[in-house]
Amino acid sequence: MDKVTGGQLAAEALIENRVEYVFTLSGGHITPIYQFLEDSPVTLFDTRHEQSAVFMAEAWGRMTRKAGVAMVTAGPGFTNALTPVASARFANTPLVLIAGAVGIESIEKLDLQDMEQRPVIEPMVKKALVCQRTERIPEFIDQAFRVATSGRPGPVYLELPVDVLNATVSPEAVKKPNTVVNSNPVDLAGAEKIVELLEAAEKPVLIAGSGAWYADAGPELIRFVEKTGVPAMTSALGRGTIPDTHPLCFESSLAIRPGAAFVANASADMVLFLGTRMSLFYIFGELFPQTAKIVHVDIEPEEIGRNRSVDLGMVSDIRELLARCNRVVEERGLGNRLKIRFKGWVDSLVEAEKEGKNQSQSDWESENVPIHPLRLAREVDAFMDREEDVVIADGGDTTTWLGMTRTVRRAGRYLDYGIYGCLAAGIPNANAAKLLYPDSRVCVLTGDGSVGFNFMEFETAIRKGLPIVVVISNDLGWGMIRHSQELKIGHAIENGTFIGRVDYHNLVIALGGEGYFVEKPEEIRPALEAAFASGKTACINVMTDPTTVSPGSMALANLGAYKA
Predict the structure, then answer these.
(1) What is the DSSP track for 153-204?
(2) Closest by alpha carbon to 171, among 128, 134, 196, 221?
(3) pTM exceeds 0.85
(4) How far is CA 155 from CA 55, 167, 289, 494, in A?
(5) pLDDT digits (tens, 9 = 90+) for 46-56
(6) Are 223 and 322 contacting, i.e. CB atoms less than 8 angstroms apart?
(7) CA 104, CA 101: separation in Å to the nearest integer?
(8) DSSP character for 208?
(9) Cis peptide bond prior to 370, omega within 30° of 0
(10) Domains along the chain?
(11) Is the dihedral of CA 209, 213, 215, 218 positive or negative?
């Protein structure tokens, strides 16, 4: 029987795993795989930078809840991929990064692009694998997918040396495992305890994070909230698992968001933390009253009790736990009793929601020129009002403004960088979203600093026929850093914080897309209408007020001094 190469085995394993797209930038060390993916069911989607390829794979993993796949070449291709891998680790994104490497026989010979890659990336991933035997390539690919998607999702690194890919083996020597892990552990006794704590609570609040999204817990979450009357908020990829428009949802749990979030967090006597982390966004747990009962549920044991002691910690799948809680509430006939018990608390949050939003209304409706960035965020939010719309935030202050504004109606349709705080993902994320949802409108709101990192992904979008719309909040520089320096040291250091006016829209026109320049608030919506009507990749360059300071800038000025 004819022998097969390692490259063929790798390609066949990806096909057998039903991978739709491999996001990639080509290179000599991965050509042995490329040649067997050409004209296969797997599409090689090429970007202009390895970072963008991995950001696309990360977005794909976050939106589909399946492992996104990226492939890069050795050395500089590998190092260019590191930032989005770190972002994926913080975001719990299922991701498989395949990297080529110098041949085993050429290590330490000063071969092209030789470096030790595994030790560099190992602390950043769930597991780092190096396959050194050609016949075992399918085994390693199977393991990479299993690890990336099981338990708490995360990135997995797989290194395939080029001589292992080029070598041939007999098909009889090859094992081809293909195991899918579908495990949803639930703490049955814990569900009983949650309901008991609810019966004793006066001011409970539920916060659903990425774990709720990855567990597909949305329907059970909504049932639980409606059965018990417990007010809910969402965070990270949990946004939209219960829509912001639901009467018992008080939108994002971020305390800086105008509305009821701060009051809810700071006044609660019970916090039901579902699949999210006790991070900076909750002042490491200090935001909640010390007397509050904390229930922390996560699929990953190490998260439970991080930064603060909890009263009830559970390792559990969020969907299955909520389903069990719903049954307990029904069996005990507690629904109406709990809803009556919490009605006053919910009513107070409704009032806090109105009051909090009223305080920002003047900025959302500002007629100022240059444009207030909250007005820009509101215009984008108001225009992108369809449930299926995808909105992506990128940039420092810009992500803050949109995070304070965006109404999320459907889970998996709003992306930002989360706790890792990594700029540059916006356009790659948008390209992945448009690829996944070709019939949905996709819009990025980004800063003029962040848009520069992967600007040539405009060209990728144009070349691939992905009509995304990118709105740039152009405040002439690195606004979050500029303002935090002004607050911290009394002035901004011009080198490193000032960019100046750049006509980004004209650059996109030169690439073959559409471009629009906006200086007045009333011009924003017509530009959005024209951009989407064009059916082309488009850039809207909006001049925003460079003096406006966001809550994010204020927090950055106090970095490392939360207990001043």
Answers:
(1) --EEEEEEEHHHHH-EE-GGG--------------HHHHHHHHHHHHH-SSE
(2) 134
(3) yes
(4) 12, 27, 35, 37
(5) 999 999 999 99
(6) yes
(7) 8
(8) E
(9) yes
(10) 4-173 (3.40.50.970), 188-359 (3.40.50.1220), 365-557 (3.40.50.970)
(11) positive
